[in-house]
């Protein structure tokens, strides 16, 4: 019997489930039973929601081609993420006429009622165990958190974790103190950056404005430990960032690096800066250049109106309005409240990118670019035709048929021949640039890792149309250039060839 092995691993599970571990168990199983293991497939899923498993897809295709008689998995719970997944896999294999073998369980025919029920219960118990473990580990984490013990996540610069306890890393702590003191003393970002020349963040990167911010606002530096304060993710999806009902907040449980006085001065400056930035941002129009009037085709432009209220205070409102309406009054399209539209767009792209399967986007994109390999067939055919005509004309001229029309036609043919040769040469030269999916994934991670609204809008919003009913259709997708890198990344690298956009969907902003 010929068989293929399939292993699956998600990083949120235990290491004993690793692909190497499953593969070695499968290999031993096959060896003991004289099963000829002819291929191995695996998926290393980073998140539980990754449904487009490349290894799994390849396995199904190979099964459909009858490259093997059976698929061996380690066990049901390792073979899939949940009950639904497992039976989808079973049905696909059944359809392909391929047997499924588990190294730890007896699997029957799923069309047999009692075998099906046994298997359903086994798969269900497996999923129950996973959910139960998750729940218990959450409870265990809560216990750890209450003792101020490390609960995972990034360890801040200035600390190490030993036996679950935060301890001060003195050489890093000196950098932290220097940043706080310089900032409290009113130094600018470039000045502080200069002081930090040659030093790196905890992750070994150069300091940036973003890394400063997370340092300057990290309460661990004054000894405050917080855990489970906000709902960030539920089942790997953006949960809105609302406060939870049961946060753990402990003061004085971590050794402080910064004194409270310096901390207060820094927080005051951070707050003032934020207020200034917010005032400035109020006048900025995040979406300008992206909005188009569906009625007349003009660009929407930002404008601000001020109303004096009865009590004398002034109220400012930002809008986007059709440019044509302002210029000539020719268009009657509705103006859109800028705060509402910007909030809508930013929060939706933020949620959308958490849902995106970067690997899938990267593969699609690479396929599009690489698949669009230059096709010079038409030019080559015409060139062959032109060549044949030139040969015939030359023959005619040699045989003594010489008249002006023929000579003129020959000149034109030679001209066209040069043109065609140039076109073919140019197109063939373009072929050199291939897109590597991993470059695309890296670039996408770069955009999303430190979410910055202005940048995300520039990279991910293609166009917004204001419809006649006052609603807006927002087209989101990834702008990329020929070598697979998003627009901005590419401009930094000085290349902008072959711009391309991957549309990933539309959002409707209510009227
Ligand atoms: Zn208009």
Protein model, in words:
Among the domains are: 2-133, Resolvase, N-terminal catalytic domain (Rossmann fold); 159-279, Putative Large Serine Recombinase, Chain B, Domain 2 (Hect, E3 ligase catalytic domain fold, Alpha-Beta Complex), CATH 3.90.1750; 299-340, no CATH class; 374-430. The chain contains 17 helices and 17 strands. The protein has helices at residues 19-32, 54-64, 76-79, 83-96, 113-146, 170-184, 189-195, 209-216, 260-282, 323-328, 338-355, 358-371, 377-398, 404-430, 437-449, 453-460, 487-493; strands at residues 2-10, 36-45, 70-73, 99-102, 159-162, 165-168, 224-227, 233-234, 237-238, 248-251, 291-293, 300-308, 314-322, 336-337, 461-466, 472-480, 500-509. Helix 6 (170-184) packs across helix 9 (260-282). The longest helix has 34 residues, at 113-146. 23% of the residues are buried. Residues 46-50 and 489-499 have low confidence and may be disordered. Zinc ion (ZN) binds at residues 293, 295-296, 298, 322, 324-325, 331, 333.
């Amino acid at each position: 019997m010929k068989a293929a092995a399939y292993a699956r691993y998600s990083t949120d599970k235990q290491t004993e489930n690793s692909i190497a571990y499953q593969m070695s168990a499968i290999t031993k199983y096959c060896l003991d039973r004289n099963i000829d293991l002819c291929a191995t497939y695996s998926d290393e899923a980073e998140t539980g929601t990754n449904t487009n498993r490349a290894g799994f897809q390849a396995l199904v295709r190979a099964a459909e081609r009858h490259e093997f008689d059976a698929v061996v998995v380690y066990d049901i719970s390792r073979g899939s993420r949940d009950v639904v997944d497992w039976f989808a896999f079973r049905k696909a294999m059944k359809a392909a006429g391929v047997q499924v073998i588990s190294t730890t369980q007896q699997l029957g025919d799923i069309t047999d009622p009692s075998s099906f029920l046994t298997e359903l219960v086994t798969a269900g118990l497996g999923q129950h165990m996973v959910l139960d473990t998750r729940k218990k580990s959450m409870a265990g984490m809560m216990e750890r958190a209450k003792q101020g013990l490390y609960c995972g996540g990034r360890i801040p610069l200035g600390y190490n974790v030993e036996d679950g306890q935060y301890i001060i890393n003195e050489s890093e702590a000196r950098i932290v103190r220097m940043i706080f003191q310089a900032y409290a003393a009113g130094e600018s970002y470039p000045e502080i950056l200069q002081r930090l020349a040659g030093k790196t963040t905890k992750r070994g990167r150069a300091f940036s404005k973003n890394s400063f911010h997370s340092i300057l606002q990290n309460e661990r530096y004054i000894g405050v430990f917080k855990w489970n304060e906000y709902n960030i993710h539920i089942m790997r999806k953006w949960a809105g960032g609302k406060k939870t009902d049961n946060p753990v907040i402990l003061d004085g449980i971590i050794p402080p690096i910064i004194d409270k006085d310096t901390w207060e001065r820094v927080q005051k400056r951070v707050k003032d800066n934020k207020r200034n930035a917010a005032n400035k941002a109020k006048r900025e129009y995040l979406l300008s250049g992206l909005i188009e009037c569906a009625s007349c085709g003009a660009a929407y432009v930002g404008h601000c109106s001020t109303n004096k209220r009865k009590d004398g205070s002034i109220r400012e409102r930002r809008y986007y309005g059709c440019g044509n309406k302002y210029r000539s009054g020719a268009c009657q399209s509705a103006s859109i409240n800028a705060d509402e539209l910007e909030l809508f767009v930013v929060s939706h792209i933020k949620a959308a990118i958490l849902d995106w399967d970067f690997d899938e986007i990267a593969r699609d994109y690479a396929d599009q670019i690489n698949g669009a390999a230059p096709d010079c067939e038409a030019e080559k055919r015409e060139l062959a035709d032109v060549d044949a005509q030139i040969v015939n004309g030359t023959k005619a001229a040699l045989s003594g048929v010489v008249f002006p029309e023929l000579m003129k036609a020959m000149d034109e043919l030679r001209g066209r021949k040069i043109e065609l040769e140039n076109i073919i040469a140019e197109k063939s030269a373009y072929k050199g640039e291939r897109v590597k999916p991993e470059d695309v994934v890296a670039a996408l991670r770069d955009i999303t890792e430190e979410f910055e609204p202005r940048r995300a809008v520039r990279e991910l919003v293609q166009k917004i149309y204001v419809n006649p009913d006052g609603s807006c259709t927002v087209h989101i997708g990834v702008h990329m250039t020929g070598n697979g890198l998003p627009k901005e990344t590419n401009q930094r690298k000085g290349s902008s060839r072959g711009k391309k956009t991957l549309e990933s969907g539309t959002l409707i902003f209510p009227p």
